[in-house]
From TrEMBL, chains A, B:
It comes from the Bacteria. It comes from Hymenobacter fodinae. Signal peptide: none annotated. Pfam families: Hydrolase. NCBIfam families: HAD-SF-IA-v2 (TIGR01493), HAD_type_II (TIGR01428). The keyword Hydrolase applies. GO terms for molecular function: hydrolase activity, acting on acid halide bonds, in C-halide compounds. Keywords: Hydrolase. This is Haloacid dehalogenase type II. Belongs to the HAD-like hydrolase superfamily. S-2-haloalkanoic acid dehalogenase family. The keyword Magnesium does not apply.
């Protein structure tokens, strides 16, 4: 049927955000509040981590994601008016970032997408070394043809350069790539850079109401995968 | 004494951040948690407001601070898994941003600095119209020779361009200006852009541990003013 050439082709490459999207952060959601004795501490800490990664980006400076994570623990203490944690406690908490399991739905979703012929690439704000350790620990590294870190451009997602560098690294046009994330800011960034996007609407996550909506939305990765495969 | 020419001269212009630095946000700290019936709601909301202003900046888009504030109320609802607020409640909460009193220490601090011969300029992420309304409501507008909004460059603080545009607008070199803020990210941005900086260490505020420290720190504006005047 020649008319099929008129329809928008499927993306060739799927880029996957890692933290919260593929990996379950429950360990940190328990450990950070426990360390401070304050149940608001995880959300405060992770919010500061994301905010200050962008502070670095817009002020023309760069520190690694684990270094900002450690600094954000001190800022969390100050903002919640709690005692700062010891250096060893901070290091132990930050090291949990590389000891997170995959969400239970993730292997099945990745299998569906791999079987459907998509190229799968991990793409994260974590440094390259952490990314490799994360995917190995979660036992999902074999699904991906490669892992990309924003370390290469020293700008954090959702800066538009990070997505442009990622699609260049995998050798496709922005319109041939689709970013999958559980974060509204990541989806907004990918869309602004000309990629398609898919939101995994995990509990407690949200879209940015002022950005254009994602191409696909699903409650977990298999649900999203079935939409993308079509 | 000719040797005095060797010492670093005082700044000529003092740029003041507005929200939380000059203005007391207690009204919003009460009203936002009350509207959601969730005591975490203010910190979640204000953190999202700051984070998404930077999401706009790094994705090459721009929405006004009040528009992001309103969107952040919906994101707060989703992230706390509470019900979204009605449009009228959201508008009412956001309108409180232009109905905030000055912190009690602020008029005295501004007087000290004005008497010492400094040029005082307000410099904020709020739009120009909101800024004018804020300073009028707080009865401190007469201390300032002008008010500057990042609306002119459509990039949010702490993007380095915002400070460069501000010092250009007041006709001085970056090294002749000093930014005063209660926020670690604002101090970090000013320092990165070559300005000097002063932190008002209000309760629940914090420096960014990975940035260079501010030139001055004080618990309130008069304490900071006395250091700057020297």
């Amino acid at each position: 049927m020649p008319s099929s050439a008129l329809y928008r082709p499927q993306p060739k490459v799927l880029l996957f955000d890692v933290n919260e999207t593929l990996l379950d952060m429950s360990k940190l959601k328990l450990a950070v509040p426990k360390a401070f004795g304050n149940k608001h501490a995880f959300k405060q800490w992770f919010g500061l981590l994301l905010q200050y990664s962008l502070v670095d980006t817009v002020t023309g400076t760069y520190h690694s994601f684990p270094d900002i994570a450690e600094a954000a623990l001190d800022m969390t203490a100050d903002m919640l008016e709690e005692k700062r944690l010891s250096v060893s406690t901070k290091k132990q908490l930050v090291s949990l970032l590389t000891q997170l399991p995959a969400h239970p739905d993730v292997p099945r979703g990745l299998e569906l997408l791999l079987d459907a012929g998509f190229r799968l690439v991990a793409f994260t704000n974590s440094p390259q070394e952490s990314l490799d350790a994360q995917l190995r620990y979660a036992k999902i590294i074999h699904y991906f043809e490669q892992g990309l870190s924003i370390e290469a451009v020293q700008l954090y997602k959702p800066h538009f350069h990070t997505y442009q560098a990622a699609v260049k690294a995998v050798g496709v046009a922005p319109t041939d790539a689709l970013l999958i994330a559980a974060h509204g800011w990541d989806v907004a960034g990918a869309q602004a850079a000309g990629l398609r996007s898919g939101l995994i609407a995990r509990p407690g996550q949200t879209l940015y109401p002022l950005a254009s909506p994602p191409t696909y939305q699903g409650k977990d990765l298999p649900a999203l995968a079935r939409q993308i495969i079509g």
